[in-house]
Design goal:
- It is a single chain.
- The protein is of the alpha+beta class.
- It has a single domain (11-157), classed as Cytidine Deaminase, domain 2.
- 23% of the residues lie in helices and 22% in strands.
- It has helices spanning 21-33, 74-85, 113-126; strands at residues 11-13, 44-52, 57-61, 91-100, 131-135, 141-145.
- It has a six-stranded mixed beta sheet with strand order 1-6-5-4-2-3.
- α3 links the parallel β4 (91-100) and β5.
- The two termini are 24 Å apart.
- The chain binds tetrahydrodeoxyuridine.
């Protein structure tokens, strides 16, 4: 038996003022996206903004449904929208933030497992990493360069490839 340790790297910034210009701008768009959130059930509003290689920024927000699983997270709304309009343009970064109706989000909003899987697919599809910037209403801001830092041992396309049995 062997124990394999996997290292992930998370950048932490004390406040928005310590961020680089591109990160800050993308977070501002994620913040703007909050106004489009439809979250009557959770009362938890999430905004996301995707930066494409052509400079375009596509926003998305969570869209809930009375049949709960039919709703979709902000990250997937933004990524799927971006990929459906610009299928051949790489996604460089995604910023995420959230505001709850009855409390203050004091730590960064991190993407759920399904959204991580979708970010992983997008990286694989474009053969390029995506920077992920995460913020709450208060507290530190976190960023990672690539989904491997949020989703180690990811399931990806190559696992579906048939290999010859020996
Ligand atoms: N949600 C997102 O949109 N993104 C996340 O990263 C976490 C959760 C949404 C889904 C649901 O509408 C609400 O937040 C509460 O889970």
């Amino acid at each position: 038996m062997n124990i394999r340790k996997i290292q992930i790297q998370i950048e932490e910034y004390d406040d928005a003022g310590s961020l680089g210009k591109a990160d800050l701008s993308l977070l501002t768009h994620a913040q703007k996206a909050l106004s489009g959130s439809y979250a009557p059930y959770s009362e938890f509003h999430v905004g996301a903004a995707v930066l494409l290689e052509n400079g375009k920024i596509i926003q998305g927000s969570n869209q809930e449904n009375a049949a709960y699983p039919s709703g979709l997270c902000a990250e997937r709304v933004a990524i799927f929208h971006a990929q459906s309009i610009y299928p051949d343009v790489k996604v460089k970064a995604i910023a995420i933030t959230a505001e709850a109706e009855h409390f203050i989000t004091k730590s960064p909003v991190t993407p759920c497992g399904a959204c991580r899987q979708v970010i992983a697919e997008t990286e694989n599809r474009q053969n390029g990493k995506i920077r992920i910037i995460m913020k709450g209403q208060e507290g530190i801001i976190q960023a990672v360069n690539g989904i491997e830092h949020l989703l180690p041992l990811v399931f990806q396309e190559e696992k579906l490839k048939k290999s010859k049995r020996s």
